[in-house]
From TrEMBL:
Keywords: Signal. Residues 232-299 are annotated as: Disordered. It comes from the Eukaryota. Residues 232-292 have a biased composition (Low complexity). Residues 1-18 form the signal peptide. This is Uncharacterized protein.
Length: 299
């Protein structure tokens, strides 16, 4: 037992290249996303650690209820503004979650220290304030033992067993390059108030393991379905007051055929949703030319 403790302590410093990341997520009501800092296809899944790990988020403390969005080797400190980059990869609609619904997705284990189990925390303000957030329930977890997994994807039987394997096989965490499903339930009654990448009513969810070599995981943005989620929209303007209808124009009274009385002007139709149009007042008049002809025949 004493030997195991000493052995674990002796190999711990070498296990600093441990990585697991959130590759893609979906809401149960639609929408897609990925973790802040993910660079997509430009990062290979298999290969040397230095080329597979640049977009894996590392957090400062193993406590899931710790503020901050973490950082990556490739881009440094994660920020709220980087939500725009995740949307450029995943689409214009963030994951949409029903009340008490689920976030599901893929957790990609890069190296042997980037495994499960994981925890999840929600920040309703969308700022990274997880210390005052709400704990979410992990319904489908990532395999692992205290953040460790074998290179073949099998869970080590104990931490002592894992330490022996690490001591005898690798000096750094070995590449795993495997995907595992994950599902997290958002507590009923959750409301989101954050703003990111032009989106309103945004929440952040932090998913991470508790491996002291990290911890590793990521932060995703999502919205509650039916809670005015989406971009800010301008309210429709009030209807314009109806103007007097064109039909209400005063009827004209022009004599038609020579000697024939002009037809009486038709009354105008009342204006719609406004002041009623004044009825046409065309009067029956005889053209000047028609009048003189009639008098001559009468004579």
């Amino acid at each position: 037992m004493r030997f195991s403790a000493l052995l674990i302590g002796s190999v711990a410093p070498t296990l600093i290249a441990a990585h697991g990341k959130i590759a893609v997520v979906q809401g149960d009501a639609g929408g897609n996303g990925t973790a802040i800092g993910i660079q997509g296809g430009i990062i290979p899944g298999a290969g040397k650690n230095k080329i597979t790990e640049p977009d894996t988020t590392v957090f400062g403390k193993t406590n899931i209820a710790t503020d901050g969005l973490g950082k990556t080797n490739g881009q440094g400190k994660n920020t709220v503004a980087m939500v725009a980059d995740t949307m450029a990869q995943s689409g214009s609609t963030l994951p949409q979650v029903t009340d008490g619904g689920m976030i599901t997705g893929t957790f990609h284990i890069v190296t042997t220290d980037g495994a499960g189990p994981v925890s999840a925390m929600i920040d309703p303000t969308g700022t990274g304030a997880f210390s005052t957030g709400v704990k979410a329930t992990v319904m489908q977890d990532v395999p692992g033992n205290k953040g460790n997994i074998k290179a073949n994807g099998q869970v080590p039987r104990s931490l002592g067993y894992w330490a022996l394997q690490a001591r005898s096989i690798v000096k750094r965490a070995a590449n795993v390059n495997q995907d595992f499903p994950i599902a997290v339930q958002v507590p009923a009654g959750t409301t989101c108030s954050g703003t990111a990448a032009g989106q309103t009513n945004v929440c952040f969810m932090k998913i991470a393991n508790s491996n002291k070599a990290g911890p590793f995981g990521g932060v995703i943005a999502f919205q509650m379905a039916g809670a005015a989620a989406g971009t800010t929209t301008t309210a429709g303007g009030a209807g314009t007051t109806g103007s007097t209808a064109a039909g209400a124009t005063k009827g004209s009274t022009t004599g038609s055929t020579t000697g024939t009385s002009a037809t009486k002007g038709t009354a105008g139709t009342a204006g719609t949703a406004g002041t009623a149009g004044t009825a046409g007042t065309g009067s029956t008049t005889t053209s000047t030319k028609g009048s003189s002809v009639a008098k001559r025949f009468a004579a």
